[in-house]
Specification:
There is one protein chain. This protein has a single domain (about 15-295), classed as Alpha-Beta Complex (Spore Coat Polysaccharide Biosynthesis Protein SpsA, Chain A), CATH 3.90.550.10. It has 9 helices and 13 strands. The protein has helices at about 1-5, 25-45, 85-90, 125-130, 155-165, 180-185, 230-245, 255-265, 280-295, and strands at about 50-60, 80, 80-85, 95-105, 115-120, 145, 150-155, 170-175, 190-195, 205-210, 220-230, 270, 275-280. Strands 1, 4, 5, 6, 8, 9, 10, 11 and 12 form a 9-stranded mixed β-sheet that branches. Strand 2 (about 80) and strand 3 form a beta hairpin. Helix 2 crosses helix 9 (about 280-295). The chain starts with a helix and ends in a 16-residue tail after the last helix.
Length: about 300
């Protein structure tokens, strides 16, 4: 309006480092989710890191959604000084034996470390089959944590300690409630139904890529991190998945294993997280990093859409 009235006037536009929108209940819930997630994340930093016998991380996907912004393969996109997969590992209990499943074509991007590397010639048709490729590097009778490379979890060490002391559990699914992304893209996620009893409720159903209610953000979202009492239980689940040829959108998801285990009489439980940081696509990565920057320290300078990320 000012320019129309006074065409010769000078106007300047200032970009602010951050903006909080609380105009609707939904806006406020989004803010509260990220505030609580990063508050918990900062609270647990510096504590002695929990341990687990074995960690298996499948990272043999193509990451095709990132090709529009970078030529760097998704697991190796540098986030805040380190590749994505390393940042994901750092949020997990530390594995005494860590196995990474990658592709021959991107193996050169791997940073030097003590992980066991299994390299595949091509991407298997589904995360479950990528996971299967690493089972030979595991000790069959020992526990294993399986987690995707494109997210971080905020796990209260006290919760993990209590779970490790919890009896009568063969497998577990890590979940979060309130994640904003499942409200805007409900068919992109998997959801867990439990008996809602105790600290670690028993899982009754897993719905893959299909919401279980009209308010997905209020439901237990399966984040993509799983625990198995033994690597053999993991293997049995995948073999049954292959036998029954259970596919979702043409792929074999590890998410689908748990109902098969339940059908065999095994006990699957839910572990609730204090936060979930999704980096699985450019928009999710940008959102997560935006809030990380907001709650990790303000900057009075122009910011990029992907703060702390190096893109080619």
């Amino acid at each position: 309006a000012l320019l129309r009235l006074r065409p010769q006037s000078h106007e300047r536009i200032f970009e602010i480092p951050g903006f909080f929108q609380w105009g609707t209940p939904e806006d406020l819930k989004i803010f509260e989710y990220w505030e609580q997630s990063y508050r918990a994340h900062h609270k647990f930093i510096g504590r002695e890191r929990a341990e687990v016998d074995q960690v298996l991380m499948p990272m043999a996907g193509l990451g095709s959604r990132f090709t529009s912004i970078t030529q760097i393969p998704k697991p190796f996109i540098p986030i805040a000084g380190g590749p994505m997969y390393q940042k994901a590992l750092q949020t997990l209990p530390k594995g005494k034996n860590t196995v990474l499943i990658t592709l021959d074509s991107v193996k050169s991007f791997l940073a030097a470390g003590d992980e066991t590397i299994i390299s595949l010639s091509k991407t298997p048709p589904g995360q479950a089959l990528s996971t299967e490729a690493g089972i030979t590097a595991l000790t069959a009778e020992r526990e294993v944590l399986v987690s995707s490379c494109d997210h971080g979890i905020v796990l209260d060490p006290t919760t993990w300690k209590k779970f490790k002391e919890f009896p009568d559990c063969d497998a577990a699914i890590f979940t979060i409630k309130g994640y904003p992304g499942c409200q805007t893209h409900p068919n992109s996620y998997a959801y867990v139904v439990t008996d809602e009893k105790g600290s670690f409720p028993e899982v009754k159903k897993v719905s893959v890529k299909v919401p279980i209610s009209i308010n997905p953000s209020q439901d237990s979202l399966l984040v993509g991190t799983f625990w198995f009492r033994t690597a053999e239980i993991l293997n049995q689940g995948i073999q049954e998945l292959k036998k029954q040829e259970i596919l979702v959108n043409g792929e074999m998801y590890l998410d689908s294993v748990f109902e098969l285990l339940i059908q065999k009489g095994l006990r699957v439980r839910e572990i609730s997280l204090s936060g979930y940081l999704c980096w699985g696509d450019p928009d999710s990565l940008a959102e997560s990093l935006y809030w990380q920057e907001i709650f990790g320290g303000y900057r009075l300078e122009q910011r990029s859409k992907f703060p702390g990320v190096t893109l080619s």
